[in-house]
Specification:
- By secondary structure, the chain is an alpha/beta fold.
- The protein has one domain (4-146, 167-196, 249-256): Rossmann fold (3-Layer(aba) Sandwich).
- The protein is 38% helix and 23% strand.
- The protein is built from eleven helices and seven strands.
- The chain has a seven-stranded mixed β-sheet with strand order 3-2-1-4-5-7-6, sandwiched between helices.
- Helix 5 links the parallel strand 2 (62-67) and strand 3.
- It is globular, with a radius of gyration of 19 Å.
Length: 258
């Protein structure tokens, strides 16, 4: 992951609070996975546990959060007062998990940070429980944004470089499906979900100041300053301004090939 995640770790949860759509997505994912107490869930790129902890509260399965950034894991452990989750430093390319034991591997808003997606998908396949005539195999679940989301992102008007940076990071589902199959995963299913939220201009300014998405940290400094200045001017003129954010998610699930 980007080194910037260490800097924003203490404020990450405030900048990206769990939405109703996030929780609904977790509930649907776990309902479909039908996990028991002996199963293992591995969240790759768990960060501060923003999704991991709610996930752990919704399933009887064991839960492991894996992240490459030590500071993010420190924040996650501090929140996990019940010790419900095993927090482990690791990479999407080398998961700290034995072969064939995970019932569910989750990559939520992670694949745009990966330079070698197919390699990471192959590593997920390695740790997933194989299926068989009398046993249900494990599954990989990916949450990512669609190309349409990238083109319609609500901050594009202030930061045109966001779409330029994110187009290759958020590929079409057809591209991801092909990569999953090359990694030895099959039965790929795709669901597209939409979520629309209204946000006060003050909240938008706070998020942009905190560079709440990794793309903001990748913009040319001048473009970032000018875009932030425009938002701050709007805030100074009228604090009642509301911006609409439409998010379009692609949810992909896949299972190990026989």
């Amino acid at each position: 992951m980007s080194p910037s995640f260490a800097r924003i770790a203490p404020t990450y949860d405030a900048l990206r609070p769990l939405s109703a759509g996030d929780r609904a997505g977790l509930e649907a994912m776990l309902r479909e996975a039908a996990l028991g107490g002996a199963d293992l869930v591995v969240e790759v790129g768990c960060g501060t546990g923003r999704l991991t902890l709610p996930l752990a509260g919704l399933t009887p399965a064991r839960v492991m959060g894996v992240d490459a950034e030590t500071r993010m894991l420190e924040v996650a452990r501090a929140k996990d007062v019940a010790g419900r989750v095993e927090w482990v430093r690791g990479s999407a390319y080398r998961l700290p998990v034995a072969d064939g034991i995970a019932g569910l591997v989750v990559m939520a808003m992670v694949i745009h940070l990966l330079r070698q997606r197919t390699r990471a998908f192959g590593e997920a396949r390695r740790v997933l429980r194989p299926g068989g005539p009398d046993a249900r195999g494990g599954r990989l679940c990916i949450w990512t944004f669609t190309p349409r989301h990238v083109e319609d992102f609500y901050l594009n008007a202030f930061f045109p470089g966001i779409a330029v940076i994110d187009r290759p990071r958020f590929p079409a589902v057809e591209v991801l499906t092909a990569e999953l199959r090359r990694a030895g995963l099959a039965q790929v299913r795709v669901e597209v979900r939409e979520e629309v939220r209204r946000m006060a201009i003050a909240d938008v300014v706070d998020r942009v100041r905190g560079r709440y998405i990794s793309t903001l940290g990748m913009l040319p400094p001048l473009e970032y300053r000018l875009g932030l200045q425009r938002l701050e001017e709007m805030l100074a003129q009228d604090r009642t301004i509301m911006l609409s954010q439409r998010s379009e998610w692609a949810i992909l699930t896949a299972e190990p090939s026989p």
